[in-house]
Design goal:
This protein has two domains: 6-218, Spore Coat Polysaccharide Biosynthesis Protein SpsA, Chain A (Alpha-Beta Complex), CATH 3.90.550; 229-291. Strands 1, 2, 3, 4, 5, 6, 7, 10, 11 and 12 form a ten-stranded mixed β-sheet that branches. Strands 8-9 form a two-stranded antiparallel sheet. The protein contains nine helices and twelve strands. The protein has helices at 16-27, 47-54, 68-82, 101-111, 175-181, 193-203, 229-245, 250-269, 277-291; strands at residues 6-12, 34-41, 59-63, 87-92, 95-97, 115-124, 131-133, 136-138, 144-146, 161-162, 170-174, 207-218.
């Protein structure tokens, strides 16, 4: 009996060298029944030609419109489903995977047919023993956070466990779960989309689990990472979109609006927060665009 078929989908945007390093780590995997699809988001750094010449067996899909994390990856997810993949690994191009990562993920998923999404433990690439995410949490008022962020790994996550959501830099999904629950909501464009996807999985009876024996190292976020104003925009708009889509209770709405208004006020009137004015404006535009039902990429308002 053959092992389950896993397809990894990598989205590349002008990160040729990182993508090649990611592919090299996947090719060193101990899991054999695996193939790779690279989505290229209009790169101008020669990524497509180099990947074609170096790895002719890899399918490359050239995208002609930037639809964000969800919309772009959905193209690859659909292609993986057409290949009859049993599991689909949505992976950032700036990630390195451990040799046994795929094997550990598939074995864990196959032991429990109720698992819909699996996540590896994520470490900082620049600080390889510091955890970036040990799964995501969703608080009482639907606040999101990464578990154990920036903590040293001292064996505190040795066992597979259920979590609320998985970091989008490396998320493995059962094809059957996607066919039942649907693709990533491409209205988000970026941020909160993986959280909402996991929430839909939970709502439909699928488990979301962290498998700590599967390890990846992510370059895109550093220790004490300071997000850009664009992240504040997407975090604001998409948080409110998630609350609306999942019919959040009044208490959650009240908490969210109070938190947003308090932050806007502080960033406006308190001198010590003057440096956050760009974030204040981004938060305000996120609220306005949510109220007007404007989705997709953040508009250029300069």
């Amino acid at each position: 009996m053959s092992s389950p078929y896993l397809v990894t989908v990598i989205l590349n945007t002008n990160r040729r060298d990182d993508t090649l390093e990611c592919i090299n780590s996947l090719n060193a995997s101990t899991y054999d029944n695996h193939s790779i699809i690279v989505l290229d988001n209009q790169s101008t750094d020669g990524s497509v030609d180099v990947i074609k010449n170096t790895y002719p067996e890899i399918q490359i899909i050239e995208l002609h419109e930037n639809l964000g994390y969800g919309g772009n990856n959905n193209v690859g997810i659909k292609a993986a489903i057409e290949r009859k993949a049993d599991w689909i690994f949505v992976l950032n191009e700036d990630v390195i995977v451990s040799p046994n990562c795929l094997e550990q993920i598939v074995e864990s998923g196959e032991r429990d047919p109720d698992i819909g999404i699996i996540g590896p433990i994520v470490y900082h690439h620049q600080s390889p023993h510091l955890i970036q995410s040990a799964g995501g949490t969703l608080g009482q008022h639907w606040e999101v956070a990464h578990a154990a962020v920036d903590e040293p790994d001292h064996g505190q996550f040795n066992n597979t466990r259920e979590v609320d959501w998985i970091s989008g830099c490396g998320i493995v999904v059962r094809r059957q779960a996607i066919e039942e629950v649907g693709l990533i909501d491409d209205r988000f464009f970026y941020y909160w989309d993986e959280t909402e996807w996991c929430m839909r999985m939970h709502d439909n009876g699928w488990k979301v689990v962290l498998v700590p024996s599967a390890k990846i190292w992510h370059k895109g976020v550093t220790v004490n990472h300071q997000p850009k104003p664009t992240v504040t925009y997407y975090a604001t708009r998409n948080r409110l979109h998630t609350l609306a889509k999942h019919h959040a209770p009044i208490s959650v709405w009240a908490f969210a609006w109070a938190q947003l208004l308090r932050t806007l006020t502080s960033w406006t009137i308190k001198p010590r927060w003057r440096y956050m004015r760009d974030h204040r404006n981004a938060m305000w535009y996120g609220i306005v665009d949510f109220l007007h039902g404007r989705w997709g990429q953040m508009p250029n308002r300069s």
